Amino acid sequence: MWPYVIISGVVYSGSILSVLDRRTSVLSWTVLASFAIALSAFIGFRFEVGKDWIQYNYIFKLITELPFVEAMDFTDVGYSFINWLAFQLGFGISAVFFFCAVVLVVGLMMFAALTPYPWLAMAIAMPHIVTIMAMDHIRQTTTLGFILIGLALLARDRVWAFMGCIVLGALFHRTGIMCLVFGLFLVQKNRLLLYPAVLGISAILMKFLLADQIGVYFLRYVETSAGSRGALIRLLLNALPAVGFLIYGKYANLPEKLDKVMRAMAWAAVISLMVLPLLPSAVIIDRIGKYFLPVQILFFPLLVSLLHGYALRFIATSLLCAYLFLTQFYWLYTSELADYWVPYKMTQF
Q1: Residue 214: pLDDT band by 50, 70, 90 thresholds?
Q2: Are 172 and 184 in contact (CB under 8 A)?
Q3: How many angstroms separate the CA atoms of 81 and 72, rounded?
Q4: Residues 248, 318: Cα–Cα separation, whole Å
């Protein structure tokens, strides 16, 4: 348990101290960058941590035994290629995990830089994105990392880079291609022509990436009435900051295109919660809802920045970090899946 306490304690402490200054200093950025490197190693070089750790090792083993073409078709092509490349270069599964960890952490850092308090943005990601998703849902976490990188590039008005990051992320988890729909909110000229074009391209890519998996997803998540532990809580915890962002997002002063996409994500997070009772299975909407997590990463630093006075910001951030710490370690202590996470072990080189 102590490795989780140490790595989390650093970011929570950094968050509390960072709000005492309106600007992130060079020293603070240097320490945060060092933390990002340590976090990448913490996630990437774990050993026998996460419920699906054995399954991903099995995938790696099978891919290394298949011809290249068959290996690329074994699972999502991006993840298959990273496994194949790691083996060709003489590395093991830890190299695959480390690559995926770096994509996520780089995405978190680039996106956190858009917020008033980057340390706090990183702290928001610790309980669920880092502790649970990154340690287990490797492919979808990598997809989320590429989406975060895309959003950071969109802040620089690089629309096609944003769209490209979504496509690249979808090569690791096919459901990520659905985020291409957010491209509709970036159309400004010739909308009568571009709306159908974006929808058409999205439909083609969805068909290409999802067609052979729709039956599998339907069988796994609907016909079997599969449930998702804590789906309602996760969707609620995503919808609440989404509502907050829809109300106070105008104070973030985001670039116009990024603001449109983030508002669309916020609405998607709210709608996800609303439609949950109407669905035969919570798993599908719960999985898709993970792509809307950037909203809460953006909202909470914004909320703290709107508070007047260092003392008020310090108290609010301290309470928020205490809440994040308690939820993170409550899960690690009480979840029926916690035995897959505790004790934490690192790969021996």
Answers
A1: very low
A2: no
A3: 6
A4: 21
